[in-house]
């Protein structure tokens, strides 16, 4: 799968947003490259490349039919709020709705009627309505400032803009988005839906055949699809603008567009920045994830209940880890790095005039600035990664405690002094996620907390004063046991009382986890502040300068790095050839039967296996497409030239992980589950006749 | 600790033996640098540097008092075979002699009389008697050959030499050692003792205070010392040549020699080779170790029995992992790597004439050869690491099965066709280790096997034909469970029957693990053969050429890389200053009391704590010394200028891990437990009056 909304995702990408150049020839935006914004999509160029005839009306329809769903993407496929996404995008919801006794991951979730559709706790979905340029205001806000003052001025202005545009419209969400690494700022305004219900999920194994081993792999045999439905006031939302369902067999070479919200790319990092990612950031991230993986695997082997508890988090962790492995490989690939160095040389070669003017006006050389910042990144990254990006180790209870403590502390402050995630416009979203009734499993919570405390101590050393604050005289094992066994935050009513009670309630609380999080605020906040001041602010300012240099060198023929906002990419149904091996673009149900061994994760899901005789083995199951996607693109509608949906993007290949740093047209491939395969699943395996009728399938 | 005799140790160092240059100034062997052989020790230079007056007689006494003990070092300290080493060097023995009910790691092992000293299963100890130059014979054996033919010819000649020199002397062990990466070959002849008994071990926590967190750390507070005794014919061995025990308080700046068997350094790797270690080898090794660590930590948390079972293996794993972290840091340290590049440039600059003559005579440029081999290393390393270096994942049962199967297959072959470790001269050692009665714990064996199978599948991919052979249609979980629960190899009688029965017994066995190991011989042997042929042979040949170039450039003022053979290094008692922080060279018992928190691993061992009032808090516990040591040096006697033993080397610092690639006099430090602290432990904590009398302490 390509993306899951994990806290981990932020860590290796914390430095990175901005304008991008792919690999291959040095000229920008070659071949099928580019995650284009809808307000700067090169219609003519795409039509010329593909022989299609899309127009602005086509783009508008696609935009209004595309859905952002948590860390995933999705597409509206009926007039009654029905939305297609990936099964792995609803896996957490499925886990939360399940118990060891009634486990929808095992059985599939197949409501016979809409009344049986179940709400996903805390979930929301959004459709992008408008994009407004606010670059001038944002640039003005930061002018003349540096360090934390720069960060806070920008954050405050963004919060003010968001509040202005979304005023008195609770069904809207407004977000100021930095594009081209600060080269542009746009206000993205979304229609927001907070009642999202699960309408269908297959057996988990049908969606994850091959498990972690086949993840980021092709040929692939996974029905990684699910349906959700948007509700408002207890009824399905009317969605007259939607994709038409086209379950026809796809053809090799046909044009494909993918519309979704890729999370983050780092294509404009300088070579100095990339070497820091390679030498310091990825190794730390991967090493500690690997240990957590080992702890979780063993935890899951201890009982059936533990296996149930750990399944979804382990899949997420393994996905992040495998993506990291692909990135590590890209950054030690000498050809790939030589191509990146060549790009940088070309860019710098074209930027001589710009740089002369910039420095003459008193500006600093951004390449020099970014190079100098790397020493600080290398020095500060372990503390940032462990005490900020991964604080709590992914423990849900710790996350709730931190949110409660910080929200209480921040809500009392004026806007200009707040942590930006606690701006007034964002409190509603925080509250709904915090108060949603979701199961938590204390044993796994403790695994995470113990791991986090022990890795923090290991990487920062036992003699670091911050670690002394974190642990006192306790051990990670003892402290995590005390906190998790003693807290009552699993009860939504307790969380609600603390949220409503604000700072007085927090200060009066004797919940051990609340008291603990309070006691380490000095440490975690100061680590964050030092990182923002020393790393983020100068990086942001130098990167904005680089964006200006890039516009000067290449004009507007460049697209911005992914930022978790809606993009459109194009390509064709095609395989690839690598090191003498050619891979065909299609797999079939027949191939699935052939690959199955009966042993997990290569066992065919029982209901799917039982339907084998009803399924044409030549039906295309998955296909590879040369579109430019990355984590966050999961669930993105794959669309043909007529604007019909022909599949859902759910993955890419291990070779495609270099996509974070540059697009390589010879190997970058998206992996799509076809509407044809989904139709087979609904009709021949799970008997979802109501959905089929809604999709217009006869 | 600096070394444990783990299978893992081989993997990252497999490429590396040879002549060495430290860091700092480019001139060879600066400051206190150098792990010198006893037959080429620069007596005059050491005396000049230290103001001492050692001579050949001094060297001879030190050599005959120094002991190689498994993967560790040790020193004879009485006339009755008493030997001082580290507690961590006997930890596996202690674990094997213990049960959850009678756990000597908890209580310490404190025999009241010699009759209560217990034999360490399968252990042996050796004292180096003679060194003979066999370079000409070994060079002649390889001449004109390449690839596997070169390897086998060399192996065969070495086995022949060893057989010749040790003929009819079962108490001897002979070993042909490659020095200066094949620049020299020497026959090392040892007196071998196979009845080694445990004479004293402290409580484990007294030896490991601070656990993994304080490992490779200083200031340090660990009584990492233990005594073994050499026996023959049921009685202690007479050892008239031995170190005199000097428990006096050491002084800052005093000269110290350390005599021991450092395992492996890689100081002459070319830059191309170092980048492969950094980019490919260390990341794979560390990532998979980290996952195993996670599995083991969780396993140990499941019950008291599991905690007991996993303690010793986990300590060993964490030691290897932490050493790897130190090495990763060295290889991404830009200053360190710049110094290495400068050394290479100096060496190449001085080697122009040599290279011209070498190529004129038809030789290949060794730098070019080594550079070209790196593509193969990068391609082949995952299979080599997983299916050869780590085959079985450290499972003892798998190791026995592989030994039984291969020995049976190899013993039938003529000498020239055998795997070298099964040469006739080596069969005795294999047999005694194989048949020793040692406990194995099936649950932990399965953790290792499952981890190994699953990591092999992950790194080589599920579609690799070798993985299909390894797994068939089984899962790692199912296969490992079937093999470990079904095998009877834990019974020494079963192993003996299979060893004695040879190939017919093996082929007739229905033990599932024997059958499994037989079934994968084609895979594991061919991966090894390809590695030896494609990587090891050309690397060895190019490295021999580099050794010749080095002798030409620097004369005999260079010392060879560590090879697990006896070396002498000198330095002084001293601390260091790094990034503005100065560390003093001594710690005391008072410092131990201060550092204790009561929570593991910072809890003082109970008997030690109970003795607190009897111990002078100013007694020096550990000290740092600027000698040049590395893994394998654990237990090495630290000696003063009069040849008296003043401590046992047991560790170094994290910064010293760069020592593998180059010595940095400003930060490289050995960590020593003093004879004074050991005397306190024997006298004031554990009441070992007999040992004290034997050591001459009043």
UniProtKB/TrEMBL annotation, chains A, B:
Q: Does the keyword Hydrolase apply?
A: yes
Q: What is its EC number?
A: 3.4.14.-
Sorted alphabetically, the keyword list is: Aminopeptidase, Hydrolase, Protease, Serine protease, Signal
Q: Name one Pfam family in it.
A: Peptidase_S46
Domain of life the protein comes from: Bacteria
Q: What does this protein do?
A: Catalyzes the removal of dipeptides from the N-terminus of oligopeptides.
The family line of this record is:
Belongs to the peptidase S46 family.
Q: What is the protein's species of origin?
A: Brevundimonas halotolerans
Signal peptide start-end: 1-31
Checking InterPro entries in the record gives: Pep_S46 (IPR019500), Peptidase_S1_PA (IPR009003)
Identify this protein by name: Dipeptidyl-peptidase
Q: What biological processes does GO assign it? A: peptide catabolic process; proteolysis
Show the PANTHER family listed in the entry. Answer: PERIPLASMIC PEPTIDASE SUBFAMILY S1B
Q: Which GO terms describe its molecular function?
A: dipeptidyl-peptidase activity; serine-type aminopeptidase activity
What does the organism's lineage look like at the top? Answer: Bacteria, Pseudomonadati, Pseudomonadota, Alphaproteobacteria, Caulobacterales
């Amino acid at each position: 799968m390509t993306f899951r909304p994990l806290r981990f995702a932020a860590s290796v990408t914390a430095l990175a947003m901005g304008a991008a150049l792919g690999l291959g020839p040095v000229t920008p935006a070659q071949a099928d490259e580019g995650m284009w914004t809808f307000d700067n999509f090169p219609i003519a160029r795409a039509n010329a490349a593909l022989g299609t005839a899309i127009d602005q009306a086509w783009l508008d329809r696609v935009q209004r039919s595309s859905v952002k769903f948590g860390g995933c993407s999705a597409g509206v496929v009926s007039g009654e709020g029905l939305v297609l996404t990936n099964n792995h995008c609803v896996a957490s919801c499925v886990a939360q709705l399940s118990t060891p006794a009634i486990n929808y991951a095992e059985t599939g979730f197949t409501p016979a009627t809409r009344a049986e559709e179940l709400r996903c706790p805390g979930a929301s979905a959004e459709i992008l309505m408008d994009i407004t340029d606010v670059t001038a205001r944002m640039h003005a806000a930061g002018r003349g400032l540096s360090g934390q003052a720069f960060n806070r001025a920008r954050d405050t202005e963004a919060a003010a803009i968001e509040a202005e545009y979304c005023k008195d419209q609770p069904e809207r969400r407004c977000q100021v988005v930095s594009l081209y690494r600060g080269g542009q700022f746009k206000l993205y305004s979304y229609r927001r839906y907070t009642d999202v219900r699960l309408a269908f999920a297959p057996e988990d194994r049908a969606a994850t055949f091959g498990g972690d081993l086949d993840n980021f792999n092709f040929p692939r045999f996974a029905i990684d699809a699910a349906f959700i439905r948007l509700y408002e006031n207890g009824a399905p939302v009317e969605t007259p603008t939607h994709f038409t369902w086209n379950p026809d067999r796809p053809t090799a070479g046909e044009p494909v567009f993918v519309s979704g919200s890729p999370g983050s790319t780092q294509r404009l990092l300088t070579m100095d920045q990339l070497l820091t990612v390679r030498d310091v950031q990825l190794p730390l991230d991967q090493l500690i994830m690997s240990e957590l993986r080992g702890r979780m695997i063993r935890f899951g082997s201890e009982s059936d209940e533990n296996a149930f508890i750990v399944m979804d988090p382990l899949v997420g962790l393994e996905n992040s880890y495998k993506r990291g492995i692909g990135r590590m490989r890209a950054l030690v690939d000498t050809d790939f790095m030589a191509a990146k160095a060549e790009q940088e040389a070309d860019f710098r070669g074209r930027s001589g005039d710009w740089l002369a003017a910039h420095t003459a006006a008193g500006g600093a050389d951004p390449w020099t600035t970014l190079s100098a910042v790397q020493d600080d990144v290398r020095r500060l990254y372990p503390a940032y990664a462990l005490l900020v990006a991964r604080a709590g180790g992914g423990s849900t209870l710790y996350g709730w405690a931190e949110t409660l403590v910080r929200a209480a502390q921040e809500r009392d402050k004026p806007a200009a002094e707040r942590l930006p995630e606690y701006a007034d416009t964002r409190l509603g979203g925080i509250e709904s996620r915090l108060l949603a009734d979701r199961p938590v499993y204390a044993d796994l919570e403790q695994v995470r907390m113990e791991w986090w405390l022990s890795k923090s101590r290991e990487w920062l050393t036992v003699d670091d004063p911050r670690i002394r604050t974190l642990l006192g005289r306790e051990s990670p094992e003892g402290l995590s046991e005390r906190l998790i066994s003693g807290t009552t935050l699993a009860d939504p009513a307790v969380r609600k009382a603390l949220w409503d009670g604000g700072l007085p309630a927090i200060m009066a609380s004797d919940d051990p986890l609340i008291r603990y999080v309070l006691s380490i605020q000095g440490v975690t906040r100061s680590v964050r502040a030092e990182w923002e001041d020393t790393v983020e602010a100068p990086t942001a300012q130098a990167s904005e300068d680089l964006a200006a240099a890039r516009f000067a060198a290449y004009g507007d023929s460049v697209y911005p790095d992914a930022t978790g906002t809606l993009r459109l990419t194009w390509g064709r149904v095609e395989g690839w050839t690598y090191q003498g091996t050619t891979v065909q673009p299609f797999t079939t149900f027949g191939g699935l039967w052939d690959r199955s061994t009966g042993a997990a994760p290569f066992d065919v899901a029982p209901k799917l296996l039982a339907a084998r005789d009803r399924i044409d083995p030549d039906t295309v199951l998955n296909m590879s497409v040369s579109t430019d996607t990355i984590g966050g693109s999961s669930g993105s509608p794959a669309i043909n030239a007529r604007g019909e949906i022909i599949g859902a993007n759910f993955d890419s290949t291990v070779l495609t992980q270099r996509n974070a740093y540059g697009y390589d047209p010879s190997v970058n491939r998206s992996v799509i589950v076809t509407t044809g395969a989904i139709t087979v699943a609904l009709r021949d395996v799970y008997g979802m006749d109501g959905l089929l009728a809604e999709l217009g399938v006869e």
